[in-house]
Amino acid sequence: MLTPMTPAPRKPSQKPSVGDKQDKGQDVQAMFASIAPSYDLLNRVLSFGVDIFWRKEAAALALAHDPKRVLDIATGTGDFALELKGRAPQIDLTASDFVPEMLAIAREKAAAKHLEITFEEGDALKLPYPDASFDAVTCTFGFRNFSDYAQGLAEMWRVLRPNGRAVILEFPPPARGLFGSLFRFYFRQILPRVGAVISGNTDAYTYLPESVLAFPEPERLAQLMRATGFRTRYKLLSFGIAAIHVGDKR
Ligand SMILES: C[S@@+](CC[C@H](N)C(=O)[O-])C[C@H]1O[C@@H](n2cnc3c(N)ncnc32)[C@H](O)[C@@H]1O
User: Fold this and answer.
1) Is 97 annotated among the ligand-binding residues?
2) Which of 17, 23, 70, 82 is the most buried (most CB within 10 A)?
3) CB–CB of 154/239 below 8 Å?
4) Which domains does the chain have, with CATH numbers?
5) Using CA atoms, how far apart are residues 217 and 36, in angstroms rounded to an integer?
6) Where does the record place the region Disordered (predicted)?
7) CA of 75 to the centre of ligand 1 (A)
């Protein structure tokens, strides 16, 4: 029998283990590197395009206090960074991710739209920025993939200035009831199959529902944010499929 002292060997593209902190970061990197070319298309198809509206709402909350310097972590292919910069061209926007293949696509998209965004490689759990250097820090659909949520929040807090704002857009676990059951069925049975066909990666789109089902309930994430020091509130979107958490550093 394998004990924690004798970890099983891992394939480079192995699906991230939602409960295995040690290897999750590396597996998440390998997974997003492999699905980068099909990530945007799959986002639109699998969310029926609704993710565009969720991002707009999260961007409005992130920009509500007129921030000057903004950091978008786990920016991926940059959709949220583009939304922020498109709405508020005056902001000084840095967008970071630890997967170069995702960042390469983000850079191309920003260049095509003539949006000036600084894209940088970086681990959200060990951000390469000094304390108190941003007025807002955002994270859309990236937080769930962190191997240590408390560390992710601590880093967001650290790089925020006093009165700064953190905004997290995520998929909470589906609620109970009829809609939640339907959504679980879609998530477990349909989404992995469509994802596998379009991306050619079977594991990535079984990881997605597993990671959502293992993610803390919105109230629990709010508690974690409060424990970090944030004043928080959250809003459920589309019958609770997505949630926006706002944390103010007061
Ligand atoms: C589902 S994508 C979300 C991308 C983008 N924010 C969006 O809204 O479409 C998750 C992204 O989080 C990144 N990520 C996960 N863990 C990370 C970490 N510890 N540091 C930096 N990026 C991370 C992945 O590389 C991936 O690009």
Assistant:
1) yes
2) 70
3) no
4) 45-174+217-248 (3.40.50.150), 178-209 (no CATH)
5) 28
6) 1-24
7) 6
